[in-house]
Design a protein that fits this description.
alpha+beta; Arc Repressor Mutant, subunit A; Trna Endonuclease, Chain: A, domain 1; 2 domains; 6-stranded mixed beta sheet; 11 strands; elongated; HTH HARE-type domain-containing protein
Length: 265
């Protein structure tokens, strides 16, 4: 087969991306294009791919060295967001001690936990209720996110630190909460799980062990909007996030909610 020119290399790359909805690594794409046109020098393929991948709005970098068509990322994100929103917006119906039936949503506790994180735990200078689909990622959006920044009077300055939290009102969802909180450690210096005090002793014991092992903070609370009584069970360990995913999260936050981004940073 004749050598590919730059346009043909880029067209072939787009065809490969179209055929791989889950994304493909750079080196695999280079190998496939070279297999289509073995007479094309690898340096030519490399250069053409660099121009395409860095300059096309249709292509997104989803991980180090991995690229995907934006339309596929949006489709995956929309499906994950719909699932997360369905869970978050599903009310929990309870009967109080006075035999009054009440209905609660996860979002009922976002703001109060943001206040607790900043004013009581003093883990951050500022925290906001996030939740929903703000970050538009299939790995989810933290319910609350806060930032610890150096103050003017601080002698020793430091880089801003991100703290994320996942709140669950259903005491039967500890595994889901843990999985999401661990995922947030990709872009957070600290991560919390916040679960009801009505979580079973067995589940709570397992959560305590898992949180201790993986450095995730564990907080329990009362299913009472007026007096949630947040209580720390396990303190989170501070760790350095993966800066690729941290910057990816911040770009998404800036794009989707500039006001929230400016409040935090």
């Amino acid at each position: 087969m004749a050598k590919f020119n730059r346009r043909q290399i880029q067209d072939n790359a787009l065809e490969i991306l179209e055929a791989t909805p889950g994304g493909i690594r750079w080196n695999e794409m280079l190998k496939l294009i070279h297999a289509f046109a073995p007479e094309t020098p690898q340096n030519s393929i490399h250069g053409a791919l660099q121009v395409l991948l860095s300059g096309s709005d249709e292509i997104v970098k989803v991980a180090r060295g991995t690229y995907q068509l934006r339309k596929y990322q949006d489709d995956q994100s929309s499906a994950a967001i719909a699932q997360d929103d369905a869970v978050a917006n599903e009310p929990l119906v309870l009967e109080t001690a006075s035999h009054v039936t009440i209905s609660l949503l996860e979002s009922d506790f976002y703001e109060s936990f943001a206040v607790w994180l900043a004013d009581v735990a003093e883990e951050v200078n500022v925290a906001v209720s996030l939740g929903g689909s703000v970050l538009r990622g299939k790995w989810g959006t933290p319910d609350v996110i806060g930032v610890l920044k150096p103050r003017a009077q601080d002698i020793l300055k430091f880089e801003p630190q991100i703290v994320s939290a996942e709140i669950k009102i259903d005491p039967n969802q500890p595994v889901v909460a843990f999985g999401q909180a661990v995922a947030y450690r990709l872009f957070s210096h600290k991560s919390y799980i916040v679960v009801p005090k009505t979580t079973s002793e067995d589940d709570l014991s397992r959560l305590k062990a898992l949180c201790t092992i993986h450095g995730v903070g564990l907080v329990t609370f009362m299913l009472d909007k007026a007096a949630p009584d947040y209580t720390v069970i396990v303190l989170p360990a501070q760790a350095s996030p993966d800066m690729f995913y941290a910057n990816q999260m911040l770009r998404r936050l800036l794009d989707s909610s500039p006001a929230v981004f400016n409040k935090l940073f």
